[in-house]
């Protein structure tokens, strides 16, 4: 019996630590996030169970020996994992070589543990000892083999799509560990169905995305798309371009292709349908006129009694047509606005514009990027505020134009860097005509609260689909009420929303202090003649004034536009041609903080000899020096009328 114990102890010594190398690898790279922590938890559970199985089997034999009066000692099979703690740095990916070794270790465990379990079972059976230890060893071996096969397949996908030794955070976390991501079963079911063209599954994924609850969803969609074969990808673009183009996490080139097709399809459908309805309405008007004339000329009571019913039916149909015509005309204006926005790309050295989102109808939604965000060194997302609608998005000096000139200025300063400047209207911005409506008023934060998960999800997608493992600087810029939405979105993704925020003309960002935003760098610019920027200091319904010293953000200089406060032109002056405010915004986006103008520069002092005095000699100023003149302070002054935007 002592010999049997010796063999079991040796078996445990050889196999109880078979998952240690895997655990050591995971401990060293656990900061990658995504589905990795859940995999790590399962690995730790299996490792502990494996070590306990050999210990319990040896103890069973040792107790037999002791009951017979012998001496028996069972060593501990528990081992500790010692690794250097990860040091914070720029790296944000996964070491492919380390993961390859881990998969090989899992495969080896999957091959050797079943044999060890069989040998353990034979030793215990010979002694007539019944123990669950054998099943635990066999189950751990089967688990290791299953993980090795699954992870090797995913690792192969990563190596095929990345030509460097690291994978992006999204790909590593969800390509390599996708099977262990939170709620992976439901998402896997939906993506599998969506890959086969299931429209309901695509809609469900879009709905889940819009809740903003799952910060990992965009990463899973990134890998899902990469793992689809080319035929399936082309089929989805052809049959469901609108839904596909709305999914965050897909490559920007794919979203652009899908959304442009959706735009073209809508334009081709809307025009003929509008003409049909207009023709139908014209016929209905003729019918109504005829019925009225008949009613006035006929003396047949039966004909007279029938006319009111026919007239009511015609009026009802005409009303439906009028509503449908109004909706179609709006959508066609929105199509034109998007086309104008896209036409800004390819001009003045700009890259072609990319259409990253498109929803027609109502206020409308879109996202237009100047530069490919998947390849950019610097990404800037601009979020507009109150009154923004899709049908005015592409107008001169409007939102798409602001993103375009932001790209111009950032590129002018740093031609060695790739920039992507995005105008994002992915939420229902509050409207002045809805001032008395709780959900749509700019006086409350409801629109920002509703828009925050949509913006957070969009930025999740930009991070997930970005090609580089590190090195991208991510800026989100909010103007007016757009800053309120940005502030709310930042608090939805604490520490993971953006590298820096820029607020201009902000009425409040739903945070009491800058630290509440959980973003490393926060900048605020406010024109002295912008009344909206003073709202937070007078009526802090959306939060305190972010330009105040108490809030704690870094302010930058914005000159007075020279317009009266009541004209509100100062509120739209931040993107003026060759303006210091636009230059400052571009420098911040590029990370060139030393070039940012923080305060107004005083005019140089000068000595001026005035003309001969006309007063008494005692009032003579001859030989005196004029006082130095300074520019107005860049710090905002309270406005006499803190009106809206």
Automatic annotation (TrEMBL):
Record InterPro entries: AB_hydrolase_fold, DUF1023
Region called Disordered, residue ranges: 604-645
Pfam family name, one: Abhydrolase_8
Originating species: Streptosporangium saharense
Segments forming domain DUF1023: 364-536
UniProt signal peptide: none
Highest taxon of the lineage: Bacteria
Biased composition (Pro residues): 634-645
Compositional bias of kind Low complexity: 617-630
Protein name (record): Pimeloyl-ACP methyl ester carboxylesterase
Lineage, highest ranks first: Bacteria, Bacillati, Actinomycetota, Actinomycetes, Streptosporangiales
């Amino acid at each position: 019996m002592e010999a049997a114990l010796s063999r079991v102890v040796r078996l445990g010594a050889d196999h109880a630590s078979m998952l240690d190398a895997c655990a050591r690898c995971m401990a060293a790279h656990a900061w990658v996030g995504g589905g990795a922590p859940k995999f790590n938890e399962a690995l730790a559970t299996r490792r502990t169970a494996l070590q306990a199985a050999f210990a319990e089997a040896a103890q069973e034999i040792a107790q037999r020996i002791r009951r017979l009066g012998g001496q028996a000692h069972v060593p501990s099979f528990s081992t500790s994992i010692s690794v250097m703690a990860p040091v914070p740095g720029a790296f944000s990916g996964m070491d492919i070589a380390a993961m390859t070794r881990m998969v090989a270790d899992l495969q080896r465990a999957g091959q050797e543990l079943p044999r060890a379990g069989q040998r353990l079972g034979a030793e215990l059976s010979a002694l007539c000892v019944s123990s669950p230890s054998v099943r635990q060893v066999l189950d751990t071996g089967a688990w290791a083999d299953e993980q090795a096969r699954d992870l090797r397949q995913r690792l192969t996908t990563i190596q095929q799509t990345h030509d460097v030794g690291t994978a992006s955070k999204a790909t590593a976390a969800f390509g390599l560990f996708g099977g262990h991501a939170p709620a992976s079963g439901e998402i896997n079911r939906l993506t599998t169905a969506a890959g086969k063209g299931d429209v309901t599954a695509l809609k469900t994924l879009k709905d889940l995305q819009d809740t903003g609850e799952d910060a990992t969803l965009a990463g899973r969609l990134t890998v899902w798309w990469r793992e689809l074969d080319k035929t399936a990808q082309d089929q989805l673009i052809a049959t469901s371009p609108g839904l596909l183009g709305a999914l965050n996490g897909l490559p920007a080139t794919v979203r652009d292709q899908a959304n442009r097709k959706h735009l073209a399809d809508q334009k081709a459908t809307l025009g003929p349908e509008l003409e049909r309805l207009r023709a139908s309405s014209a016929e209905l008007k003729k019918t109504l006129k005829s019925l009225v004339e008949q009613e006035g000329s006929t003396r047949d009571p039966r004909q007279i009694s029938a006319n009111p019913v026919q007239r009511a039916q015609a009026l009802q149909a005409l009303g439906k047509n009028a509503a449908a015509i109004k909706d179609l005309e709006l959508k066609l204006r929105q199509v034109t606005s998007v086309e104008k926005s896209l036409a800004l790309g390819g001009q003045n050295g700009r890259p072609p514009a990319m259409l990253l989102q498109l929803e027609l109808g109502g206020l409308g939604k879109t996202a237009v990027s100047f530069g490919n965000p998947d390849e950019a060194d610097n990404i800037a997302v601009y979020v507009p505020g109150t009154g923004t609608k899709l049908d005015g998005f592409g107008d001169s000096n409007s939102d798409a134009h602001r993103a375009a000139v932001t790209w111009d200025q950032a590129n002018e300063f740093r031609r060695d860097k790739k920039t992507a400047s995005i105008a994002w209207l992915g939420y229902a911005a509050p409207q002045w005509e809805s001032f008395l409506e709780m959900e749509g008023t700019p006086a409350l934060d409801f629109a920002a609260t509703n828009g925050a998960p949509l913006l957070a999800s969009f930025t999740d997608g930009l991070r997930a689909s970005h090609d580089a493992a590190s090195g991208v600087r991510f800026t989100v810029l909010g103007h007016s009420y757009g800053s309120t939405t940005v502030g709310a979105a930042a608090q939805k993704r604490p520490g993971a929303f953006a590298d820096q925020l820029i607020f201009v003309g902000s009425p409040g960002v739903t945070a009491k202090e800058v630290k509440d935003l959980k973003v490393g760098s926060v900048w605020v610019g406010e024109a002295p003649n912008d009344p909206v920027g003073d709202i937070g200091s007078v009526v802090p319904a959306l939060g305190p004034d972010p330009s105040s010293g108490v809030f704690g953000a870094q302010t930058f200089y914005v000159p007075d536009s020279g317009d009266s406060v009541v004209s509100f032109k100062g509120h739209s002056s931040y993107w003026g041609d060759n303006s210091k405010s636009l230059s400052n915004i571009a420098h911040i986006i590029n990370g060139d903080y030393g070039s940012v103008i923080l305060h107004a520069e005083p005019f140089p002092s000068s000595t001026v000899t005035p003309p001969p005095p006309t007063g008494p000699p005692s009032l003579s100023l001859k030989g005196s020096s004029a006082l130095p003149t300074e520019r107005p302070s860049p710090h905002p002054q309270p406005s006499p009328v803190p009106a809206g935007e």
